[in-house]
């Protein structure tokens, strides 16, 4: 029996969730020894040098051991969790009183095995641990793999799920039991988790029965209004609960007399950022040029675009037009969009623009990029910027989103800073810093008037970008922001 048990234990190793990463820190375990897991269920969250990633288990079974505690940095390829893939059958066979009865029950024990995980499937779905992070997870086909093990499930696999949803709408919650994990993309699963929506109760309207963001919002709307009327008793309790929690917040003020130093381990994103910035600063010879520009007309155009039907529902701000201005300047001077290949001693000019946007997050500085930004229209660019910023703030930026950047924008103006000398993102030849936009006295049409003014700073790699090229690019960006109609005449 011992040999068979050991043979049935599968070791799940730390995967390389990015390209070339060597280690990851375990942030949180979602399972404990003795828990039943299913194929595709998220078992832990790890942080690499690029992003936080949730890891799904690739098979069914019972957790036997967690090899590392939370907060441990583990090398890629090391086993982090042991799962007994035959463990799910043990509880079903346990009631047999004698060995002879176990032998006679050997035949029916096989079909009983898939029945054991069935009630357990509700556990991860209810706890919200099933969603898979953007950029890493199990393909949708893997969620259909398990139903094929039994003869009864494949054909009506989606019908019971639809019947369960329909019966819940009719008020019959206990009749059908969903046999299949609802189909939804990772961002939709996270949205459902944040809104407290059970995906098994959502009616899918997407292709092939996929649940969309609109479906989740539609399901969340009645949930927010319905509980408000009947559940008036819990409502005051929920409102009163934060009240006693609020007073202790100002209390834990650190005194400089009691605590002299605080040491913060350098790891994850901060460690990778530090290494990259040091490498960039001492590898590429940086040159930074500055220009102060009147952006009053750009701000007026921003307000006009907010009223445009084509931009309805999109986030329109000065950064959008600054990004578009830089893309136009790159089209006029494509040599700025390049990289230095030290090994081959070549300058590699990119005929595409993966536009990086530096984002300050609690985990450190992230620079995700918009793929093929040069080919996007203004509404498409606005949508991409909005999604990029939202994902970065939530700490869900995928490793792929931070690879392959060609040029970067960093907006230091949001912190009230006039300008700076940005360091190049490794592998790129230019980075544009945008300062705060302030109302200042400015000579306009021969008279001193209050105008909206900002300062731009362009850092570039002097090995492949000389002063003339860098100056032309910076001057073009400034000219477009001063007179936005050039977005049309120069495009």
Would you kindly provide a written description of the structure presented here, covering whatever features stand out?
- The chain is 33% helix and 20% strand.
- Helix 8 packs parallel to helix 9 and helix 14 packs across helix 16.
- With 491 residues, it is of the alpha+beta class.
- Strand 4 and strand 5 form a beta hairpin.
- Strands 9, 12, 15, 16, 17, 18 and 19 form a 7-stranded mixed β-sheet that branches. It has a 4-stranded antiparallel β-sheet with strand order 1-8-6-3.
- The protein contains 17 helices and 19 strands.
Low-confidence stretches: 88-179, 223-249
Tell how many strands the DSSP assignment holds. 19
What is the count of helical runs? 17
Biggest beta-sheet profile: 7 strands, mixed
Helix content: 25-40%
Bin the strand percentage.
15-25%
What's the gyration radius in Å? 28 Å
Morphology: globular
**Structural class designation:** alpha+beta
- Separation of the first and last Cα atoms: 73 Å
Overall mean pLDDT score?
Answer: 76
């Amino acid at each position: 029996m011992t040999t068979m048990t050991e043979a049935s234990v599968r070791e799940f190793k730390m995967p390389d969730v990015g390209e070339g990463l060597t280690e990851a820190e375990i942030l949180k375990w979602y399972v404990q020894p003795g828990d039943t897991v299913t194929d595709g269920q998220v078992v832990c969250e790890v942080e690499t040098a690029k992003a936080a990633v949730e890891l799904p288990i690739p098979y069914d079974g019972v957790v036997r051991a967690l090899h590392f505690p939370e907060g441990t940095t583990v090398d890629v390829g090391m086993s982090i969790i042991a799962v007994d893939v035959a463990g799910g059958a043990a509880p079903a066979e346990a009631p047999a009183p004698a060995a002879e009865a176990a032998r006679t029950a050997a035949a029916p024990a096989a079909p009983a095995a898939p029945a054991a995980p069935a009630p357990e499937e509700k556990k991860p779905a209810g706890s919200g641990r099933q969603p898979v992070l953007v950029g890493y997870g199990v393909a949708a086909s893997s969620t259909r793999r398990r139903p094929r093990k039994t003869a009864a499930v494949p054909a009506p696999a989606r019908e019971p799920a639809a019947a369960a949803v329909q019966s819940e709408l009719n008020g019959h919650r206990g009749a059908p039991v969903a046999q299949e994990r609802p189909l939804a993309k990772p961002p939709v699963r996270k949205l459902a988790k944040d809104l407290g929506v059970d995906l098994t109760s959502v009616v899918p309207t997407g292709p092939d029965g996929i649940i969309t963001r609109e479906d989740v919002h539609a399901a969340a709307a009645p949930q927010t209004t319905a509980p408000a009327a009947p559940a008036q008793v819990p409502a005051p309790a929920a409102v009163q609960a934060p009240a006693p929690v609020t007073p202790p917040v100002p209390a834990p003020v650190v005194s400089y007399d009691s605590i002299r130093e605080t040491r913060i381990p350098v790891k994850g994103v901060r460690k990778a950022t530090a290494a990259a910035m040091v490498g960039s600063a001492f590898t590429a010879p940086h040159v930074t040029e500055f220009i102060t520009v009147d952006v009053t007309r750009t701000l007026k155009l921003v307000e006009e675009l907010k009223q445009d039907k084509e931009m309805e529902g999109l986030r329109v701000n000065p950064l959008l037009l600054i990004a578009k201005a830089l893309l136009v300047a790159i089209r006029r001077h494509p040599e700025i969009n390049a990289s230095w290949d030290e090994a081959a001693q070549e300058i590699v000019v990119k005929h595409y623009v993966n536009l990086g946007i530096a984002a300050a997050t609690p985990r450190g500085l992230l620079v995700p990029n918009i793929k093929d930004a040069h080919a996007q229209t203004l509404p498409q660019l606005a949508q991409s910027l909005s999604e990029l910023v939202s994902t970065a703030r939530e700490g869900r930026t995928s490793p792929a989103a931070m690879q392959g950047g060609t040029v970067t924008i960093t907006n230091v103006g949001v912190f009230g800073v006039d300008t700076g000398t940005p360091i190049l993102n490794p592998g790129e030849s230019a980075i544009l810093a945008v300062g705060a936009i302030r109302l200042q006295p400015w000579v306009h049409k021969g008279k001193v008037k209050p105008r909206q003014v900002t300062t731009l700073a362009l850092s570039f790699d002097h090995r492949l970008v000389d002063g003339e090229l860098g100056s032309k690019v910076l001057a073009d960006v400034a000219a477009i922001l001063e007179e936005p109609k050039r977005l049309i005449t120069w495009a």
